[in-house]
Amino acid sequence: MNETILIVDDERDIVNLIMYHLEKDGYKTITALDGEAALELSKSERPALIILDIMLPGMNGLEVCKRLKSDEALSDAAIIMLTARGEEDDITRGLKLGADDYVTKPFSPKELVARVHSVLRRTKNASFKKELLEIGDLKINMDNYEVKIGHDVIPLTLTEFKLLCQLAGKPGRVFTRDQLIDAIAGVETIIIDRTIDVHIASLRKKLKSFKNHIITIRGIGYKFMEWQAC
């Protein structure tokens, strides 16, 4: 692997720690200590993924994320946010702005490298839109709106089907409730946060043995368990 990873953090010790573990794993790394430098390096080096600390001097990480995702030339770069433990509002805002994942400080370098692998894999897979998703015995046919577990057809409402497609289509990615509301917009006239929770509860019940594949991220939203396609 030779993907370039941009590390953005104002703490040099953290930057060096992340650099060491990523380069040990075969990645090329570049670094920035503030938001302005991060934007400049993103333009010149076009990294595949950016590890972005939220608490930066001057332009904070959320603003950097917003600018990256609003620039068509830079928006393809995946983003993993580094955030202080318990900062749920910042995590939610970052995900809404387009960040792909987050890691809370203090973190395990091995976990961060695993997240990098995961996000890059999801990003590559996202470029291939599949009409049929298969997760073990669970089959989701996006062409005819049919869901099966084994040979049994699972009767889902259109709202439940859209939620399942959104989550299972990007396994491992955390979606805020607002993002899920946007995904099913047009299915219902009025949708609120708690409505999403009700639909998720119903969806889990119908998924039976696959119900635990939908994971609640407390205070933020939901994600679908990662799986390896055969």
Automatic annotation (TrEMBL):
<keyword id="KW-0805">Transcription regulation</keyword>
<dbReference type="GO" id="GO:0032993">
    <property type="term" value="C:protein-DNA complex"/>
</dbReference>
<dbReference type="InterPro" id="IPR001789">
    <property type="entry name" value="Sig_transdc_resp-reg_receiver"/>
</dbReference>
<keyword id="KW-0597">Phosphoprotein</keyword>
<dbReference type="GO" id="GO:0006355">
    <property type="term" value="P:regulation of DNA-templated transcription"/>
</dbReference>
<dbReference type="InterPro" id="IPR039420">
    <property type="entry name" value="WalR-like"/>
</dbReference>
<feature type="DNA-binding region" description="OmpR/PhoB-type">
    <location>
        <begin position="130"/>
        <end position="226"/>
    </location>
</feature>
<keyword id="KW-0902">Two-component regulatory system</keyword>
<feature type="modified residue" description="4-aspartylphosphate">
    <location>
        <position position="53"/>
    </location>
</feature>
<dbReference type="Pfam" id="PF00486">
    <property type="entry name" value="Trans_reg_C"/>
</dbReference>
<dbReference type="GO" id="GO:0005829">
    <property type="term" value="C:cytosol"/>
</dbReference>
<dbReference type="GO" id="GO:0000976">
    <property type="term" value="F:transcription cis-regulatory region binding"/>
</dbReference>
<protein>
    <submittedName>
        <fullName>Strongly similar to response regulator protein phoB</fullName>
    </submittedName>
</protein>
<dbReference type="Pfam" id="PF00072">
    <property type="entry name" value="Response_reg"/>
</dbReference>
<dbReference type="InterPro" id="IPR011006">
    <property type="entry name" value="CheY-like_superfamily"/>
</dbReference>
<keyword id="KW-0238">DNA-binding</keyword>
<feature type="domain" description="Response regulatory">
    <location>
        <begin position="4"/>
        <end position="120"/>
    </location>
</feature>
<dbReference type="GO" id="GO:0000156">
    <property type="term" value="F:phosphorelay response regulator activity"/>
</dbReference>
<keyword id="KW-0804">Transcription</keyword>
<feature type="domain" description="OmpR/PhoB-type">
    <location>
        <begin position="130"/>
        <end position="226"/>
    </location>
</feature>
<dbReference type="InterPro" id="IPR001867">
    <property type="entry name" value="OmpR/PhoB-type_DNA-bd"/>
</dbReference>
<dbReference type="InterPro" id="IPR016032">
    <property type="entry name" value="Sig_transdc_resp-reg_C-effctor"/>
</dbReference>
<dbReference type="InterPro" id="IPR036388">
    <property type="entry name" value="WH-like_DNA-bd_sf"/>
</dbReference>
